[in-house]
Amino acid sequence: MRMVDVIRKKRAGEEMTAEEIRFVIDGVVSGSIPDYQTAAWAMAVCFNGMSDAETAELTLAMAHSGDVVDLSAIRGVKVDKHSTGGVGDKTTLILAPMVAACGVPVAKMSGRGLGHTGGTIDKLESIPGFRTELGRDEFFAQVNGIGVSVIGQSGNIAPADKKLYALRDVTGTVESIPLIASSVMSKKIAAGADAILLDVKFGSGAFMKTAEDAIVLAKAMVAIGTEVGRTTVAAITDMDQPLGRLIGNALEVREAIEILRGEGPEDLRELCLELGSQMLVLGGQAKDAAEARDKLKSAIDSGAALDKLGQMIAAQGGDAKIAGQPGLLPQAAARIPVLSAADGYVHGIDAEEIGLAAMRIGAGRAAKEDKIDYAVGVELIAKRGHKVVKGDTLAILHTRGDDEAARSAAEQIVGAYELGDEAPAANPLIYAIVS
Ligand code: URA
């Protein structure tokens, strides 16, 4: 088989056979297909799409390109959760202990941040001493013992996706529904959970700009999950502004603790209750979303959810006192207010721009090998619907000092705010559930 013929076939809009798809993925992993041919093929997929059968085949080929984790040594229905990427998205830090406190085992592998989006593993590593690399036996024993562990993704989960994604990122071929669906689902299938909850974002900070496109993506992923016997549910959620108020690694741990204490911003709390409810139902710990929500609220009110976070931190070598005293987390040396340049109602806050501003002051990585500063980030004071006048504080930068990076981040934050004369219509945070 020759790659050039496969590219021509896809360019002509024809359906690839399972054998051709496996040929592409094997060649991507072994390096026998050069990057320029893989990129040409990805562009042909972007233009011509893929059938459901092709998407399922591509997903399975990528899922089996590396290790496939067997979680059967962990008792109970393991439910994984994945977000298609957001800014200020610290839901895993909240959901993992919260649903574990309600009886759903969480054996989760998470990633690091790159570019404008943060990563759960970097956030957890802002807790002094916290270990994100556990051996398989320790990981399983922790989940069987306390019900929860979140660790870094092992080196060899879906290596085909890793290579393909890096290439898509630099060839303008990320935004393709079959390519995104197969990328996400290949990793979830390889990670071994019995059931999968997807948080599919739409809006300025997401790959999918509209709810309609997010629904198409969600349906494609749910269909793949169903096809391979993993119950899959997707929540379609708004990313027209960052989630919660805090963006940055230690800052996001702090906000997660606030939610687990029954405090914190309403949008984040509501999203966690909704996603957590779906996880409890998927995990067989509640008969419906209403019962699940009551259980989650009780876990917060009784302190059980926060205790579970403390147990997880202690088990993974971190300072468990942080769950009760988030002031012990790393703190930035300077706090610089970012002021509004105009009057108006906040209609939206470009999440990608806020993520990039946080990255500029050290909260994220521009390149994989960059070191991050756990203490720095952005605190949003005005969010969608707020009325501001010129000179009001829109946000506070938590930085190392009033340097060049802080000044350009402040400018970028002002530019990220979209102001209007009228109050904006209320946007539902959770637009739909696809199952
Ligand atoms: N997230 C992924 O894991 N893959 C994509 O292709 C896009 C978002």
Automatic annotation (TrEMBL):
Residues 345-420 form the Pyrimidine nucleoside phosphorylase C-terminal domain. Gene3D superfamilies: Nucleoside phosphorylase/phosphoribosyltransferase catalytic domain (3.40.1030.10), Pyrimidine nucleoside phosphorylase-like, C-terminal domain (3.90.1170.30), Transferase, Pyrimidine Nucleoside Phosphorylase, Chain C (1.20.970.10). It catalyses: thymidine + phosphate = 2-deoxy-alpha-D-ribose 1-phosphate + thymine; 2'-deoxyuridine + phosphate = 2-deoxy-alpha-D-ribose 1-phosphate + uracil; uridine + phosphate = alpha-D-ribose 1-phosphate + uracil. One of its GO terms (cellular component) is cytosol. SMART domains: PYNP_C (SM00941). GO terms for molecular function: 1,4-alpha-oligoglucan phosphorylase activity; thymidine phosphorylase activity. Keywords: Glycosyltransferase, Transferase. GO terms for biological process: pyrimidine nucleobase metabolic process; pyrimidine nucleoside metabolic process. Its EC number is 2.4.2.2. It comes from the Bacteria. InterPro entries: Glycosyl_Trfase_fam3 (IPR000312), Glycosyl_Trfase_fam3_N_dom (IPR017459), Glycosyl_Trfase_fam3_N_dom_sf (IPR036320), Nuc_phospho_transferase (IPR035902), PYNP-like_C_sf (IPR036566), PYNP_C (IPR013102), Pyrmidine_PPas_bac/euk (IPR018090), Pyrmidine_PPase_CS (IPR017872). The keyword Transmembrane does not apply. It holds the Pfam family Glycos_transf_3. It is an enzyme of class 2 (transferase). Its cofactor is K(+). Belongs to the thymidine/pyrimidine-nucleoside phosphorylase family. Catalyzes phosphorolysis of the pyrimidine nucleosides uridine, thymidine and 2'-deoxyuridine with the formation of the corresponding pyrimidine base and ribose-1-phosphate. PANTHER family: THYMIDINE PHOSPHORYLASE. Homodimer. This is Pyrimidine-nucleoside phosphorylase. It comes from Cohnella thailandensis.
